[in-house]
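Sample entry as discussed:
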Amino acid sequence: MDNLNYGIVGNCRSAALVSEQGTVEWLCLPQFNSSSVFASILDKERGGFFSVKPKYLERTSQHYIPRTNILVTRFHCLDGVFEIHDFMPRYRIDRNEAYYIPPDLVRYFKHIVGDPEIYLHYHPKLEYGVPGTKHTIKEEYLKSSTTKGPYDSLYLYSSFDLNLFDGSKPTRLKEDGYCLISYNQKLLHQDVRRSRLKLERTKVYWLNWSERTTFYKHFQEEIIRSALTLKMLSFDKSGAILAALTTSLPETIGEERNWDYRFCWIRDASMVVKNMTSLGHYRMARHYLDFIIDILPEKDEKMQIMYGIKGEKKLTEQILGHLSGYENSYPVRIGNAAYRQKQNDIYGILLDVVYQHFELYSTSLEHSEELWTIVRNIVKVVKDNWQKPDRGIWEIRSENKHFTFSKVLCWAAIDRAVKIARLLKRDAYIENWSKLRDKIKTDIHQKAWSENKRAFTQAYGTDDLDASVLLMESYGFIDAKDQRFIDTVTAIQKDLEHNGLMFRYKNKDDFGTPKSAFTICSFWLIKSLYKIGRKKEAIQKFKTLLSYSNHLGLFSEDLDFDTKRMLGNFPQAYSHLAVIETAITISDGELTDDESIMDVIH
């Protein structure tokens, strides 16, 4: 059973997934949302891969160089030991903030002992494997190109004999070597020394980045690994943040809940930015707000729930019928039709980030004025739309409802707008906005509360429960000590927790009843339990949930209730921001005078 035991390496332009056995199974070039060159994770036969298979392999092990995104796969063989250091180059090239981030994957082979025999099988399939791919060996490189349709090509440079990359004959590894996969033809001569230099420079970049991360007393390594993963899911050219690296990894094996997550959801990205700012990574927040300003240039510009990573607004969904899907979970989709949906929660989450931005640091006058214009436009949108139904945080495709979470985040939008107006001394807006904020709050208390369930429910007029309602406290709508919130947490746990993990909701949606646990919801429950005073229970649940990550501490979108196997797109930004948020909540808190958090952790 595959548990998504992959490592991710990336440079904020694209990223690759490398299996526990050292095979590259997913890579899109030249950027995250380009067509794949390796996609065997979605189809072993047609997807393409790059494997390294020792003739006399005993075992492999895998780890990251601590506090970096350089992945080390160690091969223990009967005839020797070697490592592959996989990375995508990222380092500063001048004293300004210019970075070298080429569309390259470097596989640096580090010789340890002996002279192991290895088979190199380099098998790219360009353009998702739709057209044929031919290979031509030149003096310095092996070039792969499409045989029909749109032209595309890929270059392989290596210290190994280029005739040996079809996997038919072994070669002996007697010294360090390298393979460089590039979307572009290289202008400089490539060799082992140059690859080693790129490795060291990239290592220094990630070590410096990690060093700037705020230190917490507990769960620091989990926080760092999650932060490093989220950084890799940011797109340097625009400031956009991806929901996940992959497309069409299923929420349940054999079903059709398979979606393309290589886009920037305003909700997910704003949550990520808020967390990364709390860790001291302000540049990421400023870059993201620049992205928001760029996609909303006009005052009447309607905000979509999601965009392409370069701000693209049309994300047409289509099915790649020739790919069988992850473990035959068909279909494989590219694009995402959800971009047309109406979700009213995005406004509150975005203004929460804008408020944090104004509160934490000063900005240029131009920047501040642009953001203030966006704030006022969002207030107008919320005023006109908060009483209307929407598709909600879970993107129900078939039905609009008055979702409680959407209403709470409409309240949050106006609440943050009032606070921003106070910070900017725009007193003329405060009174009217405050009245609107109070009106929304009263409406939620009257219509979202169920006496029957003793809880705030998923939507107005229903007794169905929903994990997203747990965020009411996080956004300041209700106090953790309020009996209504305590009762809501208790009811949601009783109704939605199963085998220690959480459903998003249990009521039927477009595809029937959900069958897997949505990972972030389990973190939300833990945080809520901690806030209402059930701290020991929360810490123990957090430790258990962290153990369900893969061997590198990475999380996908979903977990199987019974086997705890990871499912869904990977690695998932939502899950990793929840690791950080929950870890910070616990690390900042205390238990009692005679029992510390450390006692419970250990």
About this structure: Residues 365-385 form the longest helix (21 residues). The mean pLDDT is 94. The CA atoms of residues 217 and 587 lie 6 Å apart.
